[in-house]
Amino acid sequence: MKSTKPAPKKNYGNGARAPRNGARATPHFEKRKTPPKKVEKETAPKNEVKEMFMSWFRRNNQVGQVMTKQDVVREIIKNLDAKQNDALEEAMSELVKSGFMLVQEDGVTLVLTQLGSEFVK
Q: How far apart are CA 84 and CA 91, in angstroms?
C-alpha cells in the first residue's frame, strides 16, 4: 500500500512574502466589492418646495402670471433649508414636466400655464 502524505506546505513565514503576480492561485484572497447602495432621496423636501411654488401661484392665480427672479428669491429661496435647497431643481423640473409652469430663457423666470391655473383653483 502506498502511503499518501499531503504535499509539504511552502513556508512563507521566514520573512519572505507570498508571491504577488496579480493572478493569485486562489480567488478567495481577493475581497469582493459590494455594489453601491441605492440612496433614496427624501421626497418630503421636494414636495415642500413644490408646495411653495404652488402657494405663490394660488395667490397670483392668472394664466400667464410671471414669477420673476425677485419673486423666486423672496418667496422660495430665502425660505429653503439645506434639504430643500438640494431638492429645488428637481421640484422645478417636475412642475415643468407636469405642465403647471414654463421656465423662460433666463432659467429663473416662471410662467403659470393654463393647466397650472386650473390645478391651483
A: 9
**In this predicted model, what pLDDT tens digit does every residue of 35-55 receive, in sequence order?**
777 766 677 888 898 898 888
CA distance 83 to 91: 12
Q: Which strands sit side by side in the sheet containing 66-67, from one edge to the other?
A: 66-67, 110-112, 101-103
What nine digits make up the cell of 28? 478567495
Handedness of CA 85, 86, 90, 93 (dihedral sign): positive
pLDDT tens-digit readout, 10-31 = 665 555 555 555 555 555 556 6
28 in a domain, yes or no? no
pTM of this structure: 0.60
Pairing label, strands 66-67, 101-103: unpaired
What is the domain-level CATH number for residue 111?
Answer: 1.10.10.10
Q: Per the structure, how many domains does the chain have?
A: 1
Q: Is residue 6 part of a domain?
A: no
